Amino acid sequence: MDIILCATQRCGSTLVVEDMRNTTVLGVPGEWFIPWNPEDKSVNWLRRVPRVESQGRSANGVTAVKIMANQAGNVDKCLSAHAEGTQGLWPFFAATFKNAKWIFLRRNNVVEQAISRVMAKQTSVNHATSGTEHFAGKTLKGYDKQYNSKVTYSYDEILQAATAVTLENIAWDRFFDSHRIKPLRLFYEDTAFDERMSHLDEISALVGLGNVRKEPRQMVKLANEKNREWKERFFIDAEKNRFRPIFRPI
Q: From which residue to which does the signal peptide run (predicted)?
């Protein structure tokens, strides 16, 4: 594997994946590890690695995959019976892909990411696109500002999502530290609004390529006024509850 994009849900990874795919030379990253199930003992998962590489290979031979923090443990367990591991977090995962170039994408604003998770869960919409076809699942074709008109605010649900995001980011940092990996670190807030798409130049340099093609995205921003309203309400509730879950007596 040439490129492994490490992420957390709703951090903007699909946007980066679209940019990479559009270059036609930075692999075809996707969540190709999703079907991996450590409960299936009949499979030699190490022998499935070439299949993942094939799914993520662009025409020039570069391979890429995207993996979420809450998927890495499953992949490590799948590989544990067949690969050699060392110490540290997810050692078999690290050892199997020791020659890969690692990218860590995160979002600076954890609360906005948490709200995005809650919105996605309640609406079953993860993305919106200006086109009619897109590789991402649960995609709204064209943007409708009323798509989240029936969502229900929950302080505890957002707090739980924010806690999960924080712990997942910590897990990635532990993984990199324990295996002395120095990933290319990208932030959603930079990649989303940089018209020059400088992150593609950085990724291209990782695998020894020069200038790459940069195409306009089909993805459009989902967040709207309701996201902003929830954010302000959450901070008020967080202070009121001393940044803890709401206590409900049994």
A: none
For the stretch 153-201, pLDDT in tens is 999 999 999 999 999 999 999 999 999 999 999 999 999 999 999 999 9
- Residue ranges covered by each domain of the chain: 3-240
Q: Is the pTM of this model over 0.85?
A: yes
Domain 3-240 has CATH 3.30.565.10: no
Span 107-111, average pLDDT: 97
Residue 115 to residue 234: CA distance in whole angstroms: 9
Contact between 175 and 181 under an 8 Å Cβ cutoff? The reply is yes
Q: What are phi and psi of 90, to 5 degrees?
A: 50, 55
Compute the distance between CA of residue 48 and CA of residue 82 in angstroms, rounded to an integer: 11
The pLDDT score that the predictor gives to residue 250 is 45
